[in-house]
Amino acid sequence: MQALLDPIFLARLQFAFTVSFHIVFPAFTIGLASYLAVLEGLWLVTGREVYLQVFRHWLKPFAVVFGMGVVSGVVMSYQFGTNWSVFSDKAGPIIGPLMGYEVLSAFFLEAGFLGVMLFGMNRVGKGLHFFATLMVALGTLLSAFWILAANSWMQTPQGYAIAPNGQFVPESWLAVIFNPSFPYRLVHMVLAAYLTTAFVVGAVGAWHLLRDRTNTAARVMFSMAMWMATLVAPIQIVAGDLHGLNTLAHQPAKIAALEGHYETERGAPLYLFGWPDNDAAETKYAIGISHLGSLILTHEWNGEIKGLKEFPRADWPPAAVVFWSFRIMVGLGFLMAALGLLSLLWRLLGRLYDAAWLHVAAIVMGPAGFIAVIAGWATTEVGRQPFTIYGLLRTAQSAAPIGTPGVASSLTAFVVVYFVVFGAGIFYLFRLFRQVPGLPPEKPLTEEPTRAAGITPAAGMLEAERKEAAP
Fold it and tell me: Which of 171, 269, 369, 425 has the most CB atoms within 10 Å of its CB?
């Protein structure tokens, strides 16, 4: 009970709570912005109205998620000055500019073109509107670039010097930004964002297909989502393996914890299940496959894996947390790849839109990307403990001198406000998802293609649907 009332623990819990809420929104907007750009590009190239219909269906959810992501992100940045002011003071010369670059490049780019993207279809030319959509998509990727550069530096710091006042100051910005773990983590996160979006889009498309298998827009959603799952999920597994090898080289204690290894051994097993117990320094109830751990981590049958006992006990991360968060992430990744491969098989059989069980499976897997992203961040951040800057600055040395009542009251306020505000936003998103895609809007985003053909917008959409549904 005493540990639960520790102000540092409560501050960590507060940051974990807010980051868990926040991370799902950028993960969705990164993928959804690129998806919208692809849809608009396909519409301009092919002239098929169905791509515009799908674009229009996802434009409003994107605006809602984007807004929630901005608000939740601002709240997180305030915590650096409240709960973690010592960390901000010591790491500010490096973390501050990196986050500032994100605002100056990514956020300004997104804010500058978001209005055109959302409201400019009838006010600017098609080319300029498409350019605005591309810039918003680029802005989301730039945001991921800078945030991951900052976080990766905290994981694998380089290019710095320690000033006489104890601050970390940059010696080489290139070394700071392109630190050893950054390329792997950037690729891993962006692919995770694309998969997260694909499974949400696929779930919404599948939900509508269960109600109307002839809905052309729902078919396009489901087909594109399953292509993403088929192609990207296996790539993500490879990217994750490379990221693991990088982590083994630079954060071996984290690897030992997430694998549940306390003893150094050759031919180490891969524990599928178990309960790592730091107090007993062993993984209890372990069920593993001999040699497979060494094979995966070192690509050698008898490769040596260091156990946690090789490191000072004070530097051990909470092994049970990272052990299970890692397995949740990896397990969901393989399930995503499996669903993608099954969809490919049914696509080749010509039954992609007729297999109700496949649509139900896609709906069940809809939130899988969000869960995997949260589990992945838990693995990364908890596995870095007990440090905020790995090997250099401990979490206990980073917290602000705030007592338990102050941190506990703000944590309670966050929980209440987040569940009310973001709960309402998520409820509204589900209402948007339930809207039947492809129906003519009250005020069409564009009428040029149908007017040129001498027919009404609604008739033009019906004609496009008829052509799409034709064998």
Answer: 369
Read off the amino acid at residue 394.
Answer: R
Q: What confidence score (pLDDT) does residue 370 get?
A: 93
Q: What is the DSSP letter of 399?
A: S
Compute the residue count for the chain.
471
Identity at 111, one-letter amino acid code: A
The CA-CA-CA angle for residues 78, 79, 83, to 5°, reads: 140
Amino acid 16: pLDDT? 87
Indicate the burial class of 455 (C-beta count within 10 angstroms; 0-12, 13-18, 19 or more).
middle
* 8 A C-beta contact, residue 52 and residue 445: yes
Instruction: Kindly report the pTM of this predicted structure.
Output: 0.88
DSSP for residue 444: -
pLDDT, tens only, 4-43:
678 888 888 888 888 888 888 889 999 999 999 999 999 9
Residue 306's contacts (CB-CB under 8 Å, 6 or more residues apart) are: 252, 256, 261, 264
Q: Which residues of the chain have pLDDT under 70?
A: 1-4, 439-471
Residue among 73, 420, 380 nearest 243 (CA) = 380
Choose among 149, 176, 179: nearest CA to 251: 179
Q: How many CB atoms lie within 10 A of CB 141?
A: 16
Residue 394's beta-bridge partner residues?
387
Backbone angles phi, psi at 52, to 5 degrees: -70, -40
Contact, 222 vs 437, CB < 8 A?
no
Q: Residue 232 and residue 211: Cα distance in Å, rounded?
A: 28
Looking at residue 417, its pLDDT comes to: 87
Residue identified by tokens 């915590």 is 79
Q: What is the pLDDT of residues 75-127, one digit of tens each?
A: 887 888 888 889 999 999 999 999 888 888 888 888 889 889 888 888 888 88
Q: Which residue reads 């939900």 in tokens?
A: 207
Cα–Cα dist 83/402, whole Å = 7
Distance CA 276, CA 296 (A): 20
CA angle 289, 293, 294 (to 5 degrees): 125
As given in the structure block, the two tokens for residue 418 are 């987040």
What gap in Å lies between CA 355 and CA 219, rounded to an integer? Answer: 12
Residue 465 is predicted with a pLDDT of: 41
Angular region, 403: left φ>0, alpha ψ -120 to 50, beta rest: beta
CA 269 vs CA 129, 313, 323: distances in Å: 54, 22, 14
**pLDDT at residue 440, rounded to an integer:** 59
Rg (CA), the chain: 24
For residue 273, report the phi and psi dihedrals to the nearest 5 degrees.
Answer: -140, 160
Q: Is the dihedral of CA 144, 150, 153, 155 positive or negative?
A: negative
